Task: structure prediction
Amino acid sequence: MELNVGDALKQPGKAFLAILEEAVKPQCYGGRQIEFLTPVRLELTYSYDGGALTLSGRLNMMLSSRCARCDELFAEEFDIPFSERFVKSASADDGSYVFEGEKLELITAVMDNIFLNLPIKSVCNETCKGLCPVCGCNLNLNTCTCNQGED
Result:
């Protein structure tokens, strides 16, 4: 995902708009497979202040998630705020990304923002009943008699 910032570098202080989309291959994060069902879309404004490029906007994508309760796959939409700074030279741990030239490669910053905003556990819906702890049947689809009669 590449952004040409040449005009911003030539016109410090002026804000520019951009909409970028890129298909992303499945990623492994935190021991789980992340599959992108739609391209990642980034809508942003950016400007250059003479020392750094400031980008802010929103990321939007649809991911395939596995429910933490019933273990079924489901589609989950994410709309994530995006705000980053890119500087020409790295300074002591200020959290900014470094750039050279007029083109920013944004995929690292985009993926960092996505991973930081993923929930620890996803559920297919708030009323998901999950799996029976005894027989493992999906209680959203079937009923079981494993726990009947227990007090």
